[in-house]
Amino acid sequence: MDAEELDALTGRLRQLLLELDVDDVRPVRDGGEAPAGAKPGELLAVGALAVGLAPALLRPVLRLVETWMQTRPVRTVKVELNGHSVELGNATPEQQQRLVDAFLAAADDSARGQDG
After folding, report:
1. Using alpha carbons only, how large is the chain's radius of gyration in Å?
2. What is the 8-class DSSP label of residue 64?
3. What dihedral angle (degrees, nearest 10) is formed by the CA atoms of 100, 101, 105, 106?
4. Is 56 helix (H, G, I), strand (E, B) or coil?
5. E strand residue ranges, 11-55
6. Phi/psi class of residue 41: alpha, beta or left (left: φ > 0; alpha: ψ in -120 to 50)?
7. Alpha helical stretches, state H, the chain
8. Is residue 48 exposed (0-12), middle (13-18) or buried (19+ Cβ within 10 Å)?
9. Helix, coil or strand: residue 16
10. Which pLDDT does position 77 carry in this prediction?
11. Do 7 and 28 contact (CB within 8 A), yes or no?
12. Residues facing residue 79 across a β-bridge
């Protein structure tokens, strides 16, 4: 996949994410900085996108990314949140479900630890 195709795929994923009513979706530049005003735990990195979202939207965003990957030439997508990461890709739907559930539980436990 060349840079132009990757850019087009990233743009389409950005449009789909914005349809979920997330707060913000921005390309991550070389510095990999979060959008201005983002608080710890509010940032989801997907490929070359940073997504600001409410915690209730995290699972729908992950489901959208999984579905999006099924019809695209993208092998894996790495998601990072609260110091935890998960790679979606070469797994059965059941395995991905378990990975996502474990990832969300770990990120939630980490966020609760930061609050208390």
Report:
1. 14
2. H
3. -40
4. helix
5. 24-27, 43-46, 49-52
6. left
7. 3-18, 58-70, 93-115
8. middle
9. helix
10. 83
11. no
12. 46, 86
> Residue 18: what pLDDT?
93
Per-block mean pLDDT, blocks of 10 residues, the chain (116 long): 77 92 81 52 53 87 86 81 81 85 82 64
Report the alpha-carbon distance of residue 79 to residue 69 in Å, rounded: 13
3-state secondary structure of 73: coil
Place of tokens 């797994």: 91
* pTM of the predicted structure, to 2 decimals: 0.71
- The amino acid occupying position 80 is E
Residue 58: partners with Cβ closer than 8 Å, 6 or more residues away: 44, 81, 104, 107
